[in-house]
Design goal:
3 helices; 35% helix; mainly alpha; elongated
């Protein structure tokens, strides 16, 4: 059940794929084929800092967390 919408890569967006399969926009086989065709980019991954500025914890806060 392929249609014009299935050519748009946004139909494979993980946030809406279940809905798109459910309403027939894409078939489960199309999803499998799309996923199989994606390149492996794991080697390009880089670590990054996730520390939030302005939300530093006090030593007092950390000590109370350990007691819980």
């Amino acid at each position: 059940m392929s249609n014009v919408k299935s050519k748009n890569p946004m139909v494979y967006d993980v946030r809406v794929i279940q809905r798109n399969v459910g309403d027939g926009t894409v078939s489960p086989d199309e999803v499998k084929a799309h996923m199989a065709g994606l390149p492996d980019v794991a080697a390009k991954a880089e670590p990054f800092d996730t520390t939030l500025r302005g939300f530093e914890r006090d030593d007092e806060d950390e000590a109370s967390d350990d007691q819980e």
